[in-house]
Amino acid sequence: MMNRQPNLTCALFYLFLLGSCDWIGGEGEPATPNLRVLQAEEQEMVVSSSRFAMDLFHQLQKSEDVNQFFSPYSIHQALSMAINGNEGEVLEEFIQVLRYGGMGVEEANEAAQSLTKFLLELDPKVRLSIANAIWYKQEWEVHPEFEETVRNSFGAEVVGLDMGNPQSVNVINNWIEQNTEGLIKDMLDAIPANAAMYLVNPIYFKADWKYRFNASNTREAPFHVSPGDEVAVDMMRMEEAASMRYFSDGGLEYLEIPYSTGQYNMGVIISDEFDLDDKLQDFSFEDLEYWRENATEANFILQMPKFKLRYKMEKMNEDLMALGLEKPFYPSPMNFTKLFAHPTDPMYISRVIHDALIEVDERGSEAPAATIVEVSYTSVGPHQPRVFALDKPFVFLIQDKHSGAILFMGKLGDPSLLN
Predict the structure, then answer these.
(1) Fewest C-beta in 10 Å: which of 18, 72, 217, 354?
(2) Structural domains in the chain plus CATH codes
(3) Residue 45 has pLDDT above 80, yes or no
(4) For residues 52 and 97, what is the distance between their CA atoms, to the nearest angstrom?
(5) What stretch of H or E contains 151?
(6) Residues 277, 282, 285, 291: what is their CA dihedral angle, to the nearest 10 degrees?
(7) For residues 416 and 387, is the Cβ–Cβ distance under 8 A?
(8) 81 near 156, Cβ under 8 Å?
(9) Which distant-in-sequence residues (6+ apart) come within 8 Å of 206 by Cβ?
(10) Backbone conformation region of residue 313, classed left if phi is above 0, alpha if psi is from -120 to 50, else beta
(11) Tell me: the pLDDT tens digits for 64-112?
(12) How far is 79 from 57, CA to CA, in rounded Å?
């Protein structure tokens, strides 16, 4: 079952977390960030991904789940791979929902590649990984252009898979597990008979706090759920005040808790009353940008809960449709026209699955997540050749195929009257 209620410490964490393609970091390496000026298309990619994150955040808040945690970046990446298999009106829906209005698909693909490289090299003390893979029905042939794009821009493995073999589900699950340090397991329950393709994106993050908590200071303390309701948690506490970026606006307070060199942080938003949901109803990416730009350094002795949270969405279809991505979820010959090199039955996204986990303790944070986009085709049974019966009167002609000249023409209306 899904758990969903705003836990902004968790939800907004991934607004600041972006990925890379390989492992980075090591205890012996110097903690010096590798900074450079972002290219224009990289900045556009960050804006697109962040706007999508805010859209999805607000959509998920419409449920009554108590806690939630997800990676909008992982979901954005998986759908960004899928966008390359579409054209026309379906493509326009992807562009709108993924917030790619400021650039074309080719620019977005190039930005995904270069931004990934930048993030990979950003902080040598942060373990950060993102991987992409695509499995397709092995009897079919992937469109060469699509395969080239996802390999070059997303570093995706593209592999044929026997969708009818019950063991094939383990191929996908094991790969996800390997790319999330063994933490996301058995994500896919089964492969349906009409599955055509799986587009998969796992992401993994692990980093130490810049200012660590001493475990001996952790004590059981109350966490106030509502004015008259509290629960006991393991509350971590810093021994000394540390400098963090802080902003306050309209009863809301924003704090950036830095990891490692400070290039990554956990952003948290809290209300001075028990009205966080109400105050954040109209919260936008522009608001977040303003807060980040205007935050100033301040000294705090931080107290925060030690916690571990897993959140799985078995089917995100309705949430994504509510954001405007509708056509790809209904079988249509207009969907995924650039996915395969041959005609197929009408295809559609049958499921988008997302699984995420975060553990926060005195040392830092560890957070894996994965997204699966399952593309299926309409199951209409095996194709049988049409029986074309000349069992009634018909006209016939003898003609030249090349020129179109008709040499003879006739009609057969009653064979019994022939000789």
Answers:
(1) 217
(2) 8-209+306-377 (3.30.497.10)
(3) yes
(4) 7
(5) helix 144-154
(6) -70
(7) no
(8) yes
(9) 126, 127, 128, 181, 364, 365, 366, 367
(10) beta
(11) 787 888 999 899 999 999 999 999 999 999 999 999 987 899 999 999 9
(12) 16
* Rounded distance between C-alpha atoms, residue 162 and residue 278, angstroms: 49
SS3 256: strand
183 exposure class (CB count in 10 Å sphere: 0-12, 13-18, 19+): buried
In the structure encoding, which two tokens stand for residue 47, read together?
A: 């804006």
Q: Comparing 307 with 165, which gets the higher pLDDT?
A: 165
Helix H or strand E encompassing 25: none
- Indicate whether 200 pLDDT > 70: yes
Return the closest-CA partner of residue 67 out of 2, 1, 4.
4
Residues 6+ away with beta carbon under 8 Å from 382: none
| Mean pLDDT, range 387-409, rounded to an integer | 54
pLDDT tens digits for 318-336? 999 999 999 999 999 999 9
Please give the Cα distance from 254 to 126 (Å, whole number): 23
SS3 331: coil
Among the listed residues 170, 187, 129, the one whose alpha carbon sits nearest the alpha carbon of residue 310:
187
- pLDDT at residue 174 is higher than 60: yes
Predicted confidence at residue 343, as pLDDT, reads 85
Q: Considering only CA atoms, which of 75, 59, 73, 77 is closest in space to residue 4?
A: 59
